Fold this sequence. Notes:
By secondary structure, the protein is mostly helical. The chain has helices spanning 12-27, 30-64, 85-120, 129-144; strands spanning 75-78, 81-84. Helix 2 packs across helix 3. The longest helix is centred in the C-terminal third of the chain and has 36 residues, at 85-120.
Amino acid sequence: MDPVPHSPAFDPRQKAYSLFEEFKKFAFKGNVIDLAVGVVIGAAFGKIIESLVKNIIMPLISLIVPTEQGYAGWKFVVNGKEVLYGQFIGEVVNFLVVALALFIFIVKFLGWVMKSRAEQAPATPPPTKDQELLTEIRDLLKEKTVPASPSHS
Length: 153
C-alpha cells in the first residue's frame, strides 16, 4: 500500500521540466541577450568614465584646491574622527560625468538619429499606370461576379 498516493496533477518532474522550459524561453529571447550585451558594454563604459574622473578630472580639480595627497586627502576632523569627503566628491563627479555622457549619447545623439531616419523614410509612391489598370480590372471583376444561386431541379 502506497502511503502517499501520487496524483497525476502533481508530478514534480513535470513541474521542474515546465519551469526549465519557461526559463529557457526567457533566457534565450533576443531581448535578454541584447540586455546582457548592454550590461557588459555599460560596465566597460563605467570603467572608462571612472578612469577619466580619477585620473584626469579630479587631479585638475586638485590643482584649484591644492593639498599634499590631492582630492583623496580632502577631509575634516570631528571629535578625532576623519571624514574623507574628497573621495565622495570624486564619486559624485564620476556619477555626473556618466549621467552627462549617457544623456548626450542616448537622448541627444540617438534622438537625432531616429529623427533623421523618420525624415528619410520614403513615402509610398503613387501607383503606376499598370497598377491603376489592374486595380480597375479587379474592381470590375468583383462587380460582375454574382454569387451562385442554388439550382432548382
